[in-house]
Specification:
The structure is a single chain. By secondary structure, the protein is of the alpha/beta class. Helices cover about 45% and strands about 15% of the residues. It contains 16 helices and 13 strands. The chain has helices at about 1-5, 35-40, 95-110, 120-125, 130-140, 145-155, 160-185, 195-210, 215-220, 235-245, 285-300, 320-325, 365-380, 395-415, 420-440, 445-450; strands at about 10, 25-30, 40, 55-60, 65-75, 85-95, 110-115, 225-230, 260-270, 270-275, 305-310, 330-335, 355-360. Helix 7 packs antiparallel against helix 8 (about 195-210), helix 7 (about 160-185) runs antiparallel to helix 15 (about 420-440) and helix 14 packs antiparallel against helix 15.
């Protein structure tokens, strides 16, 4: 931790795409940031080297005077910066070579390469952000849908932190009242146990309410894995193409055309969806097709949702029944495809399925109904995605679970009439767990685990 707090760090802060980036930023933070900037940057005229000004000039090699780039320099002096340290940003032309050369010059002037997430870690350690806000930054960078981005932004603005701090403050107030009775029992009125119980109930209810967003958060962060499965030539690839509005999968009239899993990334109702078109499941002597069938079965076993696709002309067949028996333990929607052709779209299905959707994928019909069915299935599983502005991650859920268990144990202790000293044990555990969420009580190993998942320049 001491290494993190000491020294001046530098890193490339933008994604660099070869021959495509228009702007590349090299960020420097620490006590020598401005000195390094003055050494490398020539600002012509009478431009003022003041905080929160942008200077125009050239980045030059300090020994040879060679010009590396024509650039802008942004100066942000402590404490009005992202890390609450002196920060400078060299805004160069994009691409690989220029920004790497500028970064190398910064390192030669005494900066060291930043560790993953070290800029944000310094912001946390310097009190600029709490831990929930720092994690929200990572979520915002990695957001796969507009709703995921909005949820992360709400966390960055402190919505979760405010709620957790309020709960922790209430627990601290209760602990203070209890400990006061332990130390000064003769000088204070008796403890108002009904009031204590009511306040604990309220805290426990709010903890449970926040904890209920864990599955929602996982859904927004990782998305939904949806597998399209069925017999060969029922229109699975046509369904993927119509849904993704592209020609991701090859479509022919020949059964067994799809030999491997084809993937497409979509967003449905604010939820990132990974759609997997699988090879038609059937018994075959073709070794390549056999591999595809086995991969299809494996994908279906791990999918969050299975779209079992059949065709209206053939109806429910023995082959459909066999496939259903392999995937019926997964959340499932039955898709009756090719309803635009001769056949009976109102097929009698001899098994229990949650929802049935009719599509004519080749005609791009029924896709909206399919998306609505998926959202309804998600909602049935208590993974509501609408109007979600608070969603905790796995680490936060684990700490909240510890807090809930501790608070429930306090209630048991009170109910059994045990001495006040016993009340404080689990109450302190709840306070500690809540403090872990915001970073008020956190270990170095936890910080390492969190920030190691960040990119270098963040």
């Amino acid at each position: 931790m001491s290494q993190v707090l000491s020294g001046t760090i530098a890193a490339i802060a933008t994604a660099i795409v070869p021959q495509q980036g228009s702007v590349g930023i090299v960020r420097v933070s620490g006590p020598n940031a401005v000195t390094i900037a003055r050494t490398l940057f020539r600002a012509p005229g009478r431009q003022l080297w003041e905080s929160h000004r942008i200077l125009y000039g050239q980045i030059c090699h300090p020994q040879t005077g060679q010009i590396l780039d024509e650039a802008l320099l942004l100066i942000m002096q402590a404490p009005r910066s992202y890390t609450r340290e002196d920060v400078v940003e060299f805004q160069c032309h994009g691409g690989i070579m220029v920004v790497q050369q500028v970064l190398q010059l910064c390192l030669e002037q005494g900066a060291r390469l930043a560790q993953p997430g070290e800029f944000t870690l310094r912001a946390f350690l310097n009190g600029r952000l709490d831990l929930t806000q720092a994690e929200s930054i990572a979520d915002l960078v990695g957001a796969q849908s507009p709703q995921a981005a909005q949820t992360a932004l709400a966390g960055l603005q402190g919505k979760l932190a405010h709620s957790i701090r309020s709960l922790r403050a209430t627990c601290l107030d209760i602990l203070t009242e209890i400990e006061a009775r332990i130390d000064f029992e003769e000088d204070l009125p008796p403890l108002d146990e009904p009031n204590i119980q009511a306040r604990l109930n309220q805290v426990l209810a709010e903890v449970t309410q926040v904890l209920a967003t864990a599955d929602r958060g996982a859904l927004l962060r990782t998305g939904l894995k949806v597998a399209i499965v069925g017999r060969p030539n029922v229109g699975k690839s046509s369904l993927l193409n119509a849904w993704s509005r592209s020609d991701r999968a090859i479509v022919t009239a020949l059964p067994g055309t799809t030999r491997d899993v084809v993937e497409s990334q979509l967003v449905v109702g604010g939820i990132p969806v990974q759609v997997l078109d699988t090879a038609g499941i059937r018994e075959t002597e073709d070794q390549v097709e056999q591999i595809g069938v086995e991969r299809s079965r494996a994908v279906a076993q791990t999918a969050d949702l299975v779209l079992l696709t059949i065709e209206a002309q053939a109806g429910w067949t023995a082959a459909d029944q066999a496939i259903y028996e392999q995937v019926c333990h997964r959340p499932l929607i039955l898709v009756v495809n090719k309803v635009d052709l001769d056949g009976d779209p109102q097929i009698k299905v001899p098994v229990a399925v949650g929802q049935v959707v009719q599509t004519a994928a080749a005609q791009h019909q029924g896709i909206t109904d399919l998306e609505q069915a998926i959202l309804a299935t998600v909602a049935t599983g208590d993974l509501q995605a609408a109007n979600l502005d608070l969603a905790i991650n796995q680490r936060q859920a684990a700490a909240l679970t510890q807090a809930r268990v501790a608070l429930e144990q306090v209630q048991v202790t009170m109910g059994e009439g045990l001495p006040l000293d016993f009340w404080t044990i689990d109450l302190r555990a709840a306070i500690h767990a809540l403090g872990e969420i915001t970073g008020q009580e956190v270990t170095e190993s936890v910080l390492d685990n969190i920030f190691s998942r960040f990119c270098i320049g963040k």
